Amino acid sequence: MSTFLYKIGKAAYDKPWAIISSWIVILGIVVAMIGVNGLNISSEMKLEGTESQKVLDKLVQELPQAAGGQASVVFAAAQGERLDTPERLAKITEAINKVYALEYVINPAELVAAAAQGGVSADGDQAAQAATQTEGAQSGKAEQASPESAPAEMPPYMPLMIDNVPVPGVLIATDGSVALFQFQFTVMQTSLPKGVTDSVVEAVKDVEKDPGIAVLPSDSLNVVDIPVGTNEIYGLVIAAIVLVVTLGSIVAAGLPLVVALFGVAIGVGGAFAISSFVTMSSITPVLALMIGLAVGIDYALFIVNRQRRLILDQGLSAREAAARAVGTAGSAVFFAGLTVIIALCGLLIIEISFLSLMALVASVTVFLNVLIALTLLPALLGLMGERICSSKAREKIRSKSADKHGVADRYVKGVVKYRWLVILGVIVILGFAAIPATEMRMGMPNGSTANLDTPQRQSYDAISKGFGEGFNGPLLIVAEPKNPTGTISPEMLGGLVQDIQKVQDVSVVSPLGLNQEGNIAILSLIPKTGPTDTATRDLVQDLRAADSTIAKTYDVTLGVTGFTAINIDMSSKLAEVFPIYIVIIVILSLIILLLVFRSILVPIKATVGFLLSILATYGISTAVFQWGWLSNLFGFDTGGPIMSFMPILATGILYGLAMDYQVFLVSSMREAHVHGHRGVNSVIHGYDQSSRVVVAAAIIMVSVFAGFIFTHDIMIKQIGFALAIGILIDAFLVRMALVPAVMALFGDKAWALPKWLDRILPNLDVEGDKLIAQLNAQDAVASKQEN
């Protein structure tokens, strides 16, 4: 491997413009594809195989309009004022009629009229659901007060009436302070043509011409954008400063930044280029940007730093040093990148399409950064030539004392001396940090966790206050006879509504109709509790239970779908596959590190260290985002559940990145051991050689990830925080403290490997020993020929 990469590095150095031109052409193709296809991102998160998705898919086939996206608008009066004045009701009704007149919005009046004229068709009957929403609300109140129902207070809302005629889809609080307008599209929001939601918002915003009314559209009406702002630049600025300090040259420091930006431009740009052909969530390119910037800068830093050390320490020419740097540090970069790619691709086992796409796009971006670091970087070094090291730097190294790593040397000797104390201290600290993870609650962010000054939060709070928190997370119930030839009569549907109304934590049940064949009944259910509450999750599970009293009484199966049910299923599925993913990560870690380090102990130590750091990451993330610790510092108001796929996503990414530092740090210790340093001396010598660049790389990576913490999107905020704190813990507590302490504890035994295993394992030559030996032999032959 190292010999092959050495040849690539030398070829790229000698013919820089051929390599540079090739990469520029590739970037040009990507830009051209974006220009032709445009940018298309979605908020859709499809969960294949889950109960809610199965129900939704069935509705798309049988009753397409029932599967259409839902949205709502809240009209809120100013403090102490009311909405139900004639003038304000006229404005609100006018805005609602404008919305119903739009294409792709179900118009209840037209559909009821069509059903009355031509009989009730599948579409007509189902689409008339919007017209019966008010009736459902009224019947729900009546049922709550009936003798058969559990005693309940009358809800603090009623249908909005104009001239004694209910306005379809609109409820108003009895105190007149807030009105809720709920409506449905004919298709899912992700399938709506551009501009439809904008037209809806524009229509309802006319009401705000009255200064006493606030119009708050639901989240589903917001235009999906790429959640990236200017805060990410701060991370790059810190990275640039660290590069200058580490490399001692602005010119040298610029190369890793150029290489990383080139890599993410092609990787993320390529993702956008295909976004017209695949459904891509807004998080996908941002995740690729995060990882691509971090690994791109770090990988280029390792190679540039190695080249400069070879020039300054061994007096090699820039050409030879660049080739050797690609052959040695480049080998470590290749295997480090491989671990990140394998960890990300491991997410494919979850079989959730949007997560799989995120993993694949991020993996391709990492792969591109590895290729660019091994080809474009040496080409750029070829253009730089000997200028990569200034005469001032060369003079400084000649006058410098033999102890080149004074601080690192003193630090690692202290760690080695007090190794037992360091080991116990790190374990205690990380164990304590992991404690909050025992109470980690997973879900999806919603209006209840948005900042107080956002329309999403104001809408959520207004709905909760005026109608009940459950109105923020309605459920769609689909009832089907267990007997394939069975049907559901209108009387049976009425009985279902009444019995479901009696279930604990159910607020309102509204019948939405039957299909033409009579074998599918649709109901709308409003829980008493919020979308992320445990009681709502339990309610969904109880309704689905095949042995429930309702299912047995009516001989039906009840399917539950809707945004709330989908989020519940996502959390359940991810929690189910998470242990399997952890096992896969552990096995991969052991195999890859066994091949790289040819040691039994080193892989075990590295994996245990990673598990400690990831548990601590979960704990700290829970304390911050769920408990709300330091929330003001990180730019959010209210704690809430940890995003469902954050733990499994963070595990895969952090595993790969943690192994990067393991490879670069411990490979130096192995190199010292191979070259004759024994016991703790190999640990100290290897640490001295690599600690400076590993610390710089870790600071850069933390800075890049931390820049995403201050974005407005809570999902990106959580991912950025978890990755930043995870790298901070793993790099500085595990790799820079625990690893040298454990290595010193075992000494030369750390490199023990059974002979039979040594024979069958391939020698990957990550440290480049074979390459160096070959080059030394060539130098000796050349020297003899000259003499």
UniProtKB/TrEMBL annotation:
Entry's localization field: Cell membrane
Protein's membrane topology: Multi-pass membrane protein
Compositional bias annotation for Low complexity: 125-152
Gene3D superfamilies, alphabetized: Multidrug efflux transporter AcrB transmembrane domain (1.20.1640.10)
Residue span, SSD domain: 250-383
Membrane-traversing stretches: 20-39, 233-252, 259-280, 286-304, 325-350, 356-384, 420-438, 578-597, 609-630, 642-661, 693-715, 721-746
Xref: InterPro entries: MMPL_dom, Mycobact_MmpL, SSD
Keywords per UniProt: Cell membrane, Membrane, Transmembrane, Transmembrane helix
Segments for region (Disordered): 125-155
GO cellular component terms, semicolon-separated: plasma membrane
Protein name: Membrane protein
